[in-house]
Amino acid sequence: MELTTSAELLDSLRAVSVDTARNAYVPYSGFLVGAAASTPGGDIYRGCNIENASFGMTLCAEASLIGSLVAHGGKGIEVICCRTADGTFLAPCGRCRQMIMEIGGPDCLVDLGNELVPIRTLLPHAFTGRDMNVETS
Ligand code: THU
């Protein structure tokens, strides 16, 4: 897969992720995070972090994005961006990398701010459905 995407699409995803970060529910950390992703079909989905008094239940922005994408019938992820409300780039946490791998597949591109890298390089030797002899699309 080509490690580029259109500059317009990337600009849109970055803008949507910053915009969505403003909706984050973060009474405990005050750390506003937004994520935006495009599907191969051209749809854009968004998510923000949602914290909880039971801290371990906190949903990351990427996880809430993936929940929305799946719930709306979205298929696959082409590119995913994650930003704080002031536009600072954020690397997906380990759990989110696993979720991105599951739904986006190994070639899904992650915006690292100055480069796009496939999720397989951020999560090498990943545990996937293949380890259970299950092929996911
Ligand atoms: N957070 C995300 O939304 N995504 C990440 O990849 C890393 C962390 C959120 C979770 C929590 O609400 C806050 O950032 C501080 O960890």
Automatic annotation (TrEMBL):
<dbReference type="InterPro" id="IPR002125">
    <property type="entry name" value="CMP_dCMP_dom"/>
</dbReference>
<keyword id="KW-0378">Hydrolase</keyword>
<dbReference type="Pfam" id="PF00383">
    <property type="entry name" value="dCMP_cyt_deam_1"/>
</dbReference>
<dbReference type="InterPro" id="IPR050202">
    <property type="entry name" value="Cyt/Deoxycyt_deaminase"/>
</dbReference>
<dbReference type="InterPro" id="IPR016193">
    <property type="entry name" value="Cytidine_deaminase-like"/>
</dbReference>
<dbReference type="InterPro" id="IPR016192">
    <property type="entry name" value="APOBEC/CMP_deaminase_Zn-bd"/>
</dbReference>
<keyword id="KW-0862">Zinc</keyword>
<comment type="similarity">
    <text>Belongs to the cytidine and deoxycytidylate deaminase family.</text>
</comment>
<keyword id="KW-0479">Metal-binding</keyword>
<feature type="domain" description="CMP/dCMP-type deaminase">
    <location>
        <begin position="8"/>
        <end position="130"/>
    </location>
</feature>
<protein>
    <submittedName>
        <fullName>Cytidine deaminase</fullName>
    </submittedName>
</protein>
